[in-house]
Amino acid sequence: MIAGNVSVRDVILVAYGLEDVQLVNAPDWTAERFAIEGRTAAETPSDRIRLMLRSMLADRFSFVAHPERRELPLFALTMARPDKRPGPRLRASGSECAPIQPLPGVPLPPPPPPPPAGSPAPMRIIPAADEPPRRRCGAAMAPGWISARSMTIKEFTRVLAQLLRRPVIDETGLAGEFDVDMLFAPDSGAGALVGPPPAALAEAPSLTTALQEDLGLRLDARRGPVDVLVIDRIERPTEN
């Protein structure tokens, strides 16, 4: 079962494997949330899920789009240190999942309750045929705080792209999976705090400084080719 109160924009991003900055010409109403439901097997490859979502977008939203490559501002993630070593809070993942480090003064949310007896098993998305199976150790993120386990640098660049609202490409040369912990001052854009920040963030460094000091990484501002999806047509759905 696929079900949820999700925005059409998010469905498009998942269906086409995009970051938010790669979607062009999306009308404002695509941020509205809809209850979208469908049925599939309990374990379905991720490429099959994407095809199902694309079919649903075409059928219910008259969705038509085409890919382009555009020259856009972006960031390149590089190594900050002359010796190319990661910082103290970017560590190669061990054989066992290390515990998540909570934001000081803010307890981790409790795990979700178990489903009621007799309820159907939740859908599990398994890797596509060309995706090797991955150990999932989990991650916790909030404005100004990231604590992730067994994360690849490519996955980390996606997190940065959401924070910075700009594509981020990996030029670190780092391979494998890493444990990442960092505190930084949320700005007024994506990831901004609502209300007073926790005490741990009151004097936190900027994201740029935290990347260099904690992770040994640097962001270089550039322009370069970025693959985007340009929406040609999308309509509000009719009621079922």
Short recap of the structure:
By secondary structure, this protein is an alpha/beta fold. The chain has four helices and twelve strands. The protein is globular, with a radius of gyration of 20 Å.
Write structural notes for this entry:
It is built from 4 helices and 12 strands, in the order E-H-E-E-E-H-E-E-E-E-E-H-E-E-H-E. It has 240 residues and is an alpha/beta fold. It has one domain. Strands 2-12-5-10 form a 4-stranded mixed β-sheet. Mean pLDDT is 81; it is low at 122-128 and 188-196.
Q: Please state the structural category.
A: alpha/beta
Main sheet attributes: strand count, strand direction, barrel closure: 4 strands, mixed
> Count of DSSP helices?
4
Radius of gyration: 20 Å
Q: Approximately how much helix is present in the residues?
A: 10-25%
Major β-sheet strand ordering: 2-12-5-10
Cα distance, first to last residue? 17 Å
Oligomer: single chain
Q: β content, as a range?
A: 25-35%
The mean pLDDT is: 81
Low-confidence stretches: 122-128, 188-196
Name the overall outline: globular
H-E string:
EHEEEHEEEEEHEEHE
How many DSSP-defined strands?
12
When the domains are counted, the total is 1
